[in-house]
Every structure is written in structure tokens, then in C-alpha cells.
Design goal:
This protein is an alpha+beta fold. Helices cover 20% and strands 30% of the residues. The strands form eight sheets. Strands 19, 22, 23, 27, 32, 33, 34 and 38 form an eight-stranded antiparallel β-sheet that branches. α2 packs across α4 and α4 runs parallel beside α6. The longest helix has 17 residues.
Length: 622
């Protein structure tokens, strides 16, 4: 409990429908086991935890969870010792380690009310649940765990005896401690990165701050999460958090000048709140307070789940009480129903972070180096075009050596800049360059590329299967009225000319195009059908590089976007591609016997293979 109370504006509303569903889902075998486990003797608990095996989160998955537990002091208050809620929270971590990909747990201080040895013995025993499984965690001293008027030079205390460096000595995540033992740092791997948790004392001294700076400097590429008992507070529920006097000093002395610190977590005050401040480097630092000791059952050992998703650029935050969830099967009292899960805007929320941009100043993502063209010439490659070896836009050589070279065709009245070499490229593209097509159809302007009249690709029918791949990007000024239905890749020749009577006689026999809603469309007239077969992608944002792959196994065709299959893939049996012995076009779309549209955007590497490739064989590694 803090020395100056900040009273919230009353309890939150009862559990939402989602909460009830979550509760119902957890009231099954897993939670029944959790409840029973809490009541078993210590020996049985030891044996049960040992059967779970070692703690092994997926350290490469872009989605992972950090668990936060705030003040538990009212559960360990003199002779009033209630470890069950804390144990339930810890067993929730064990039960959901895999599906949540939990990588770390941080306690934010005020573990106990009076800092007595017996209180620490009780909560220390509860933490053994994590110790037995090797779950990485950190703790910090709060003002109730030690003499609040002292800093980290206070010397020996029951807190240090229970949760000092000796406790973590054998933990793989433990990085080290300040000489006084009250400040520690911990390392874990997630999303392929090393992350650092800096766990600071209630009142770090000048020596403690210097130590913290040294730890950060020794790990110059690690994103840092700072945990301590006090940084920010709010006067009322729903208010934006603000720095306390001590928080301001910590900001000035450490956080502001340490760009690696992107998130701070503290307890001490209530109600929960958050804010974002720009640091000296001009980047966002997110500062969060979470504390529920003022609520039913001393907060019931509520935990925060910080679900990181680097692919989405989001941290989704949820607040629950596993202890109450575990009791749901037996029925809840009125207050427990309100506390099972908190759904207010300061308890369940999402934080948007462009992690790549935010960490670029200290942990830039190394771009994937260009891959040799020869490595892309896998068995069955019929044609491969890339643009990094030459800036020539008049002729692009087919790197297979099969003679499917491309030549430039310019619409009269078009500026030379309408087809230009560019060093822009998809981050996972083998060749680090592209061609920019400045197409427009109001009026028709632009330039495209086409194979020669005698190119072997022109007559290929791919009866046994095929794969067509291309990297591309649409610019921010792409307009559906002026740029829709332009093709990345198409085949000259109309369905009517091919004798196909089941579709539009004026449309091309093969095209990979973009609709007015920026959906990929693979529309072809197969050898075995009189009509067309179409695969559809989804709406693609502008200004983003994409990889498209169309794969036919001799019967069915699947469209992939960035290596992921789309939903609208037809089940129609489609054999091969109709051919009229006419050229292929890159960036151009024929309709009614003439060029109707030219692409507005970039095209990177393009590859056509005479067999069905698996996603792991695509030019993109995702």
C-alpha cells in the first residue's frame, strides 16, 4: 500500500460476456486440476510440477507473453497469510505456458505488508512453484518490503534473504545484481531477440542508477523493460498517468536518456493507469501502473498478461484473477463475479508499437543479404527475371539462359521515367532492386516488358503443373479509377482467339492482376476447360511490398500471399495454361486485342517454374 492513497472511482462493472466465456472455458479439467493442485501437500505439488518438464517457450515466435503481478502485500500481512491466490496465478502460468508462449514473469514489489521474515517465508514458498519449473521471473522491493526511508544501500533485510541474488544464482535468465543485491537484471529470448528486464529497488541510489546504466550499456541491442515499485500514478480511474516526484527523478536520471527502455511497469499507487512520453531520442516510452490491492481480497493476486505480437506491432493487455477463475466451477460470490476479469480501459487495452522502428536506434533489423541468382534457378525453372545486375530497362535477360528475355514497349506520348530502375525491394527478395512502372489509363500511358516472339516460354502449356512468383508494391497514390486491373504478369492472346466460348472473348488467356479493391486475381483459361478459373486474394494495403505465388499441381491451383494460402481458391480441376504462342507481358494487360492498362507500382524478382513448388521453396522465406 502506498503512503498516499489514490482512490478509484468505484469497482468495475461485472464480468462481460467474453469474461464469462473465458471463465467457462477455464472451469474445465485444467482449472479443476489447478484448484485441486492448490490444495495438495507440498510433496505432491513438487511431484506434479516435476512431471511438467523444463520450461521451454518458443523463442522465435513473434507472439509471446510477459506476465506482471503487482502488490500482494495484503495476502502476506503478519499472521494473516493467504498464499492460495498467488499460487493459483503461478499455476495458471504453468498451465498456459505453451498456448500463451509465456517467457517471463515480473513482480512489481510490496510482496509483503510488514517486511517480516515469516511473511517472506510464506510468499517465498509460493514462488517455489516457479522455481521448480525454472520459470524466469524478477522481483523488486517495495516500500513495505523494506524500511521505506532507505535506498538500496540499506544492508541486510528479510527481503534480501528471501529474494536476493542467491535465489536467482542458478536461473539461466539471471544476468546479475548490483553489489548491494537490491537491483537485478534478467535476460530472456523472444521473437528471435534478446530482451532485458531491469528490476530496480524502491529507491535506487546514485550507485544503483550508475549500475543500471552500465547494464544497459553492456547489452546495447537489447530492448529494456524497466520494473520498479514507483514511477507513475493517477488520481482517478481513467485519468492519464503522470510521473510521481520519484518517477520524475528516475526519468531524468535514467529513463529519458536510455532509448532502449521502451516500457516501464510499476505498482505502489492505485488506480491503474498509463501514459506515453517522448524520450531524449524522440521515441515513445510507455509507462504503466498496475495495482489492485485496494480491490476484493487484496487484489486476489491478479495478473496482467502483456501479449506481445511483433508481427502486428501490438501489445494486447489483459487483467485476470486465476484464483477466482479456478473457483468458477464451484460457483462464485457476488464480489468474485466482479473481479474474475477486469475489462475497463485501463485494465484491458492494446498498445501499438512499430517494434522495428522503435528499436532501430539500438537494435536495427539486419536486412537479408541478396541471394545469388544461381540459387534461385531451382529444378524446373522456366524463366527468372531480376533487376539488380543492370539498370537497363530496355532489355532484361532471362537468367535461366532459356532465352525468355524481356524488351521494353512504350506507349506513344509516354515519358522515359514511366519505366525506371529502382533500388526499392521486398526485404526478403533475392535481388535487391526492382522496376518502377508509372502506368495510367486516363489517358493510357506507360511502358511494359514483353518476351520476344520466338521465346520458348510463349508456347509452354505447363500441363503437369506450374508456379508463378512475383514481388510487387503499389504506391500510396494508387487509384482504383486509373490503375485497377493492371497486371503484374499476363499472356498475350484472348480467350476468343483460343476458341474458348465460356467466358469473355476479349479477356486475356492468362493474367495475374489487381482488382479495384487491390485484390490479387489469377484468372486463366486452362487446357481442359472452355471457361476461366479464378483465384482471389484479399485487399492489400498500399506502400507495402508483397510476394505472390500461384501454384498448380496439375489439377488444382492455390494462390499464396507472402507464403500464406488465401481463402478463395477454386476446387475446379484446372490442367495447364492455354497458349497461343504469343509473348508474355510484365506490367501490361491486354483487353480486346490491345494494351488496356499498365501497372502503377514496382515489380521485383519474377520466377516461373514448370512444376508445383511448396511454400518452403518460394523465393520468400516466410
Amino acid at each position: 500500500m502506498c503512503d498516499t492513497h489514490h482512490i478509484p472511482d468505484g469497482p468495475q462493472l461485472g464480468a462481460s460476456r467474453r469474461s464469462l466465456l473465458v471463465g467457462a472455458g477455464l472451469a474445465g479439467a485444467a482449472v479443476a486440476g489447478l484448484t485441486a493442485m492448490t490444495a495438495t501437500p507440498a510433496e505432491a505439488a513438487d511431484a506434479a510440477d516435476a512431471k511438467r518438464g523444463a520450461w521451454r517457450p518458443d523463442t522465435d515466435d513473434s507472439r509471446f507473453t510477459l506476465v506482471v503481478m503487482p502488490d500482494t502485500q495484503y495476502l502476506f500481512d503478519g499472521e494473516s497469510l493467504h498464499p492460495a491466490p498467488v499460487e493459483a496465478s503461478f499455476r495458471y502460468l504453468l498451465d498456459h505456458a505453451e498456448d500463451e508462449n509465456i517467457v517471463f514473469m515480473s513482480h512489481l514489489g510490496d510482496l509483503t505488508q510488514n517486511g517480516q521474515a515469516a511473511e517472506f517465508a510464506a510468499i517465498g514458498d509460493a514462488f517455489r512453484i516457479l522455481d521448480r519449473r525454472g520459470v524466469p521471473y524478477s522481483v523488486v522491493a517495495g516500500n513495505h518490503d523494506i524500511a521505506s526511508s532507505t535506498d538500496d544501500q540499506r544492508g541486510s533485510t528479510p527481503y534480501l534473504d528471501a529474494f536476493g541474488p542467491a535465489r536467482f544464482r542458478d536461473a539461466p535468465s539471471f544476468g546479475g545484481a548490483s553489489p548491494d543485491g537490491y537491483n537485478t537484471y534478467h535476460l530472456f529470448r523472444a521473437a528471435g531477440l534478446q530482451w532485458l528486464v531491469l528490476a530496480l529497488d524502491w529507491r535506487p541510489s546514485a550507485a544503483g542508477i550508475a549500475w543500471a546504466k552500465g547494464v544497459i550499456a553492456a547489452h546495447p541491442q537489447a530492448p529494456v523493460i524497466l520494473t520498479t515499485h514507483e514511477v507513475v500514478y493517477a488520481d482517478e480511474y481513467g485519468d492519464e498517468a503522470q510521473l510521481s516526484d520519484h518517477g520524475q527523478a528516475l526519468w531524468d536520471e535514467l529513463i529519458d536518456g536510455s532509448d532502449q527502455i521502451f516500457l516501464t511497469l510499476n505498482g505502489h499507487y492505485w488506480p491503474p493507469a498509463r501514459t506515453t512520453r517522448k524520450n531524449a531520442a524522440g521515441n515513445d516510452t510507455h509507462l504503466h501502473i498496475t495495482n489492485y490491492q485496494n480491490r476484493y481480497y487484496g487484489g486476489a493476486a491478479m495478473i496482467r498478461l502483456y501479449r506481445f505480437d511483433l508481427a502486428r506491432g501490438t501489445i494486447d493487455v489483459e487483467t485476470i484473477s486465476p484464483w477466482i477463475l479456478g473457483k468458477a466451477a464451484k460457483g462464485l460470490n457476488e464480489l468474485e463475479r466482479e473481479e474474475i476479469e477486469l475489462t475497463g480501459p485501463q485494465d484491458r487495452f492494446s498498445v501499438e508499437i512499430d517494434f522495428g522502428q522503435r528499436f532501430a536506434g539500438f537494435a536495427p533489423v539486419a536486412p537479408r543479404p541478396a541471394r545469388p541468382a544461381a540459387r534461385m534457378l531451382i529444378p524446373g525453372t522456366a524463366a527468372y527475371w531480376r533487376f539488380d545486375a543492370s539498370h537497363d530497362t530496355d532489355r532484361v535477360v532471362d537468367l535461366t539462359g532459356h532465352g525468355n528475355d524481356l524488351s521494353r514497349i512504350t506507349v506513344p506520348g509516354t515519358a522515359d521515367s514511366a519505366l525506371a530502375w529502382s533500388d526499392e525491394h521486398h526485404p526478403d527478395q533475392p535481388g535487391h532492386a526492382s522496376l518502377y512502372f508509372g502506368g495510367d489509363k486516363s489517358p493510357l500511358r506507360g511502358a511494359y516488358l514483353r518476351t520476344a516472339d520466338n521465346a520458348p516460354l510463349n508456347s509452354a502449356t505447363f500441363r503437369s503443373g506450374y508456379t508463378v512468383e512475383a514481388f510487387f508494391k503499389l504506391p500510396a497514390d494508387w487509384d482504383s479509377d486509373r490503375n485497377a486491373w493492371a497486371a503484374l504478369l499476363s499472356r498475350w492472346g484472348l480467350s476468343g482467339e483460343a476458341g474458348k466460348t465460356g467466358g469473355d472473348p476479349d479477356e486475356p488467356i492468362v493474367t495475374l492482376s489487381l482488382s479495384g479493391d487491390r485484390e490479387l486475381q489469377w484468372c486463366v483459361y486452362p487446357l481442359n476447360l472452355d471457361t476461366s478459373v479464378t483465384n482471389w486474394g484479399h485487399e492489400l494495403p498500399l506502400g507495402v511490398w508483397w510476394h505472390a505465388a500461384v501454384v498448380n499441381d496439375g489439377r488444382h491451383t492455390t494462390l499464396y500471399v507472402d507464403g500464406c494460402p488465401v481463402a478463395r481458391n477454386p476446387s475446379t480441376r484446372a490442367v495447364g495454361l492455354t497458349a497461343l504462342g504469343l509473348p508474355w507481358l510484365l506490367g501490361g494487360y491486354e483487353y480486346g486485342g490491345k494494351i488496356d492498362q499498365i501497372l502503377h507500382g514496382w515489380i521485383g524478382d519474377v520466377r516461373i517454374a514448370e512444376r508445383a513448388l511448396k511454400p518452403g521453396e518460394f523465393m520468400i522465406s516466410r
